[in-house]
Amino acid sequence: MRTGSGGTAEPEYAVELDGLGMRFGARTALCDITARIRSGQITGLMGPDAAGKTTLLRLMAGLMLPATGTVRLLGMDALRLARTAPNSIGYMPQRFGLYEDLSVRANLELHARLRGVEGEEREGLFARLLGFTGLAPFTGRLAGRLSGGMKQKLGIACALLGSPRVLLLDEPGVGVDPLSRRELWEMVTTLCREGMSIIWSTAYLDEAARCPEVLMLNEGRLLYAGAPEAMLERVRGRVFALRPPRETRRDCLARWTDMSGVEDVVVQGSRIRLVLAADTAGTLVRKVYEEGGEAVPPRLEDAYMSALGGMLKTPSPYGQRTAGVDGAGAAAGSGDATAERIVAEGLTKRFGSFVAADAVSFRVRAGEIFGLLGPNGAGKSTTFRMLCGLSRPTAGQCRVDGVDLLRAGSLARARLGYMAQKFSLYPDISVAANVGIFADLYGLSRREQRERLPRLAAALGLAPFWHSRTDSLPLGQKQRLALLCATLHEPPVLFLDEPTSGVDARTRRDFWKHILALTAAGTAVLVTTHFMEEAEYCDRLACINGGRIISMGTPDDLKSACARESGQNDPTLEDAFIACILRQRREEAQA
Q1: Which mean pLDDT values do the consecutive 10-residue runs of the chain (591 residues) have?
Q2: Is there a smaller number of Cβ atoms within 10 Å at the N or the C end of the chain?
Q3: What is d(CA 187, CA 258) in angstroms, rounded to the nearest whole number?
Q4: Which whole-number Å values give the CA distances from 167 to 226, 499, 539, in the listed order?
Q5: What does pTM read for this prediction?
């Protein structure tokens, strides 16, 4: 036994799973899960989409009865504990589950009443939680108007009402910028030091690597349980890095991706990172060294990708252009590889006295990937909406593929594809019906639909879900569907607003395979992301905060600037991003 927060005696294991199984109709969500989760630590729960992470957390929270086996929390059956001592468990669901039309304070009051926390105890707890989360200045703000990071902090605050001994967090970092994610981690680390047991489900492998122990699920089965460091031993000696010239980096990435015996290939700064399969490593090592490569220490993401069987090798359907739709398809775009496909000049958007975007200017050429980075609420999505013709700028100009959005909005919108930050397709109809609606909107003929749709669906892994209801899809499949609908008409310009938010590393790799194939065919891509490693795929980046561009350049430019300022030898892009934001905050504080 150990002592937890408030002097409560804690058992050695916060959670005990024995032969746990769960089914939903004919689908097996969990199969024979047996594991122990120690008390007083942060345990990472990782796995790809539809691996069973959310189902497992809901069973731990006592919200469902398992089909087979048992789940015990604090030495007691989870369902019984949830009924007899509900305040012992804090649960924050993956989707923001609070009332967006209520204020921060009203949401806290509602959850306090539900947990029976009243009187002086409630006020004291409110003061502590608001100070702990940094939400004290925003108690009157509607929850729906909070940034992504602030919403997650409010969700954690509500989960902490009642002072739970076990805290279950279902992907709290999804949709949150790196600085806010770091703040969330510091908050949770403080709770752990006070004796709380925390299970942190995550799609970010750098988060899982910080945990003393992790559980890895795939297709409802437990692939690994233990310390992250021990999992690294599975790929030690099989991880390498190449440093090709930037102008040939994508060709190098594509060549190694297609090579037999390579489990994983990913861009890592100015290098290409490789994981070789165990049975072919010896054969390929010589080739790696011939190209100037070197062995590098493994990281958890390398071991994760290897455990899943490596990246998906299905070729992208976007490598070869078909004839474009009149006035809309790729054939309508300029064939000039240097053509400026996206032009933003002094774009400004005001909402009353609030300036959401302030004189934003940049240009994106054909075949170029341009990334917008910034914290939640920085103005990225506002800029996106103006460039897509969904919001009229207060001032400035914007052109898409040579067409002025302010003068010929319909024609310009026909030349672009847009994948929104929030899933915006029809949830209560089938995948096929959603695709059919977009195909008709984009003017694809019946012959084009018959030829194009099966090919795209198969390549994007949607064929098995073609007749499924859209709202029943796993998150990764929903994102694939959104990408398919945005690219049906093969647009010369593609806008991607956090396209891989919440999806696992394997799905992210597959997404970027398709995006790179589109750019190779001449598409200009504008993308926002909170995942700094995928921002490395961008040719250029603009860091936005407070509605203004505060830094612009290649990923290497931003990291070099960070190295000069901080003295770090090899800063990551996340280091550079956070340094850029903190520098602006210091300058504003001194002004």
Answers
A1: 58 96 92 96 92 95 96 96 94 85 94 87 88 89 84 89 92 82 87 93 88 95 96 95 83 90 88 91 86 94 94 81 38 59 95 92 95 87 87 93 87 87 88 94 90 89 92 87 91 91 86 91 92 88 92 91 86 89 85 71
A2: C
A3: 42
A4: 20, 29, 41
A5: 0.84
